[in-house]
From TrEMBL:
Protein name: Glycine zipper domain-containing protein
Signal sequence extent: 1-22
Superkingdom assignment: Bacteria
Source organism (scientific name): Peiella sedimenti
Basic and acidic residues: compositionally biased ranges: 61-89
PROSITE patterns named in the record: PROKAR_LIPOPROTEIN
Statement: the UniProt record of this protein carries the keyword Signal: yes
Length: 89
């Protein structure tokens, strides 16, 4: 058997086994996920809350960012009024 034919045969065998393996992997992943969910329900809220907090931006953070950008533009010569970006903290 030539190296090219051998590679084709291996590739065909792997392609034929893919559907069977994916079902096993999905079943195993579902089993592991179920075990993790059952064991870590109490920690989930804290983790999700921290993740959401890390990804979202509060209104005050947005206003501070806009004010810094406005002040930068004023330093560069703009006549913009940056007081509208004032926060109450």
């Amino acid at each position: 058997m030539t190296p090219t034919a051998r590679r084709l045969a291996i590739a065909a065998a792997l392609m034929a086994m893919t559907p069977a393996l994916s079902g096993c992997l999905v079943g195993a992943a579902a089993g592991v996920a179920g075990a993790v969910v059952g064991a870590g329900v109490s920690a989930t809220g804290a983790v999700v809350g921290a993740g959401v907090d890390a990804v979202t931006t509060s209104d005050a953070e947005t206003m501070r960012k806009e004010r810094r950008a406005c002040e930068r533009r004023v330093r560069d010569g703009s006549r913009e009024d940056c007081r509208r970006y004032r926060t109450d903290d």
